Amino acid sequence: MYIVRDLRTKYGPIFTMQMGQRTLIIITSAELIHEALVQKGPIFASRPAESPTRLLFSVGKCTINSAQYGPLWRTLRRNFVTELINPARIRQCSWIRKWAMENHMKRLKKESLETGSVEVMSNCRLTICSILVCICFGAKISETLIKEIEAVLKDVMLMTTPKLPDFLPIFTPLFRKQLQRAKELRRKQMECLVPLVRKRRAFVESGGKDGDPEMVSQIGAAYIDSLFGLEPAGRGRLGEEELVTLCSEVMNAGTDTSATTLEWALLHLVMNQEIQTKLYEEIVESVGKEGMISEEDVEKMSYLGAIVKETFRRHPPSHFVLSHAATKETELGGYTVPADANVEFYTAWVTEDPSVWKDPSEFRPERFLKGDGVDVDVTGSRGVKMMPFGAGRRICPAMTLGTLHVHLLLAKMVQAFKWVAVPDSPPDQTETFAFTVVMKNPLRAVILPRS
Predict the structure, then answer these.
(1) How confident is the model at residue 414, as a pLDDT?
(2) 430 domain-assigned
(3) Percent of the chain with pLDDT over 70
(4) Contact 200, 224 (CB under 8 A)
(5) In this model, does residue 380 exceed pLDDT 60?
(6) Which single residue of 33, 125, 223, 377 could bond 382 by disulfide (Cβ 3.0 to 4.6 Å)?
(7) What is the CATH number of the domain that holds 411?
């Protein structure tokens, strides 16, 4: 990503890179990103060819993220939006968040007592993953099993990041061992999740009378319930392979991005106690020192919203959005973009651009209350100043759900504890890439009970 930053200075906002046998068209300016993804949305809404490893895990591009722009993608996305993120369903699932967050707070207290500090990332990942398992399968399962699922899904994400054969297919035979490892991991993923698929199916088919204690959500309230009867164009009825893949997509996408955002936000609250105090005062003013924090409460907390937006701006989950491909040859910025070429949108520069943001390297939530962030549209529809969820047709469909989890967890953690640095061990802001852009040395902090 740092190479792209340097090349941008030399070659301008749009340039071509030849990576082996693959042509990558790199787009780095806000204007061209908006033109491609919003104004010419349908043309840039497809995906390039996949590697054999990624095809294995996506069951031949049967996920919302990987599907070609067309009937399959429309069916999967429409079903997801209707079934999972409509306001009624989000309200219906509020008990899941309450249960998971109560466990989260107990776990933080226990870890703090045992070790004197807490690790942010691992705790946030576990909590968000447990919420998403329950939303997907309607199941309340043991922490041990959640950790097992979380570990397998993390391995899947790392296994499917771009590798040498993606760019030089001629070398694919030399990577047979990697494909074997991928097949073994896929088998583990299926072993982990198929039992949940079968238990939920039995629960639904019995009309909720099979008495399985793990199945806690009413019929119709779990994402997988909507997939059992779905018959997308060109696919027919979905099998266990597709069901596991589609639920894994939700859990993967939601866990890492939300947990990463929480870790970066808490880093800045630890480093800047003034910001943390201001947030705590807003929470107390809104719900009291020990009041329950609801979905409706966090929507009204403007400073909390500003902190989360500034975290998205300062630490976007990725420096690129997922690869796009043009559905037909088209023109962009005076250049011809061939059909099916990899089009890569480098979005990190947009949030670092000093002509767009004042003092872009500073973490300053106030900019979203009065300043250069007030009218920013995080969806990119009106113009691109930041795009943590992508933009246009392929924008992340779960952004409202992910943002809600971040707001709730951050508010609850700051209401209960004051977060401070571990003595003689200040936080390290060095970044590294592990599907999302994470802290190289995971954040540990001391938590001091507020009351």
Answers:
(1) 98
(2) no
(3) 94
(4) yes
(5) yes
(6) 377
(7) 1.10.630.10
Q: What is the pLDDT of residue 164?
A: 52
| 169 pLDDT more than 70 | no
| Residue 6 included in any domain | yes
The stretch 321-339 carries a mean pLDDT of: 89
Rounded to 5 degrees, φ, ψ at 328 are: -155, 165
Q: What are the tens digits of pLDDT across the range 110-147?
A: 999 999 999 999 999 999 999 999 999 999 999 999 99
pLDDT in tens, 228-255: 999 998 888 999 999 999 999 999 989 9
Tokens of 376: 């920013």
Q: 131 — phi, psi (to 5°)? A: -65, -45
Range of the domain at 248: 1-418
Residue 443 in domain: no
Q: For residue 333, what are its two tokens? A: 């910025």
pLDDT of residue 434: 65
Which residue, among 349, 259, 268, has the nearest Cα to 306 in the 3D structure?
Answer: 268
Mean pLDDT of 406-430: 94
When computed from its CA atoms, the radius of gyration of the chain, rounded to whole angstroms, is 22
396 known member of a binding site: yes
Total number of domains in the chain:
1
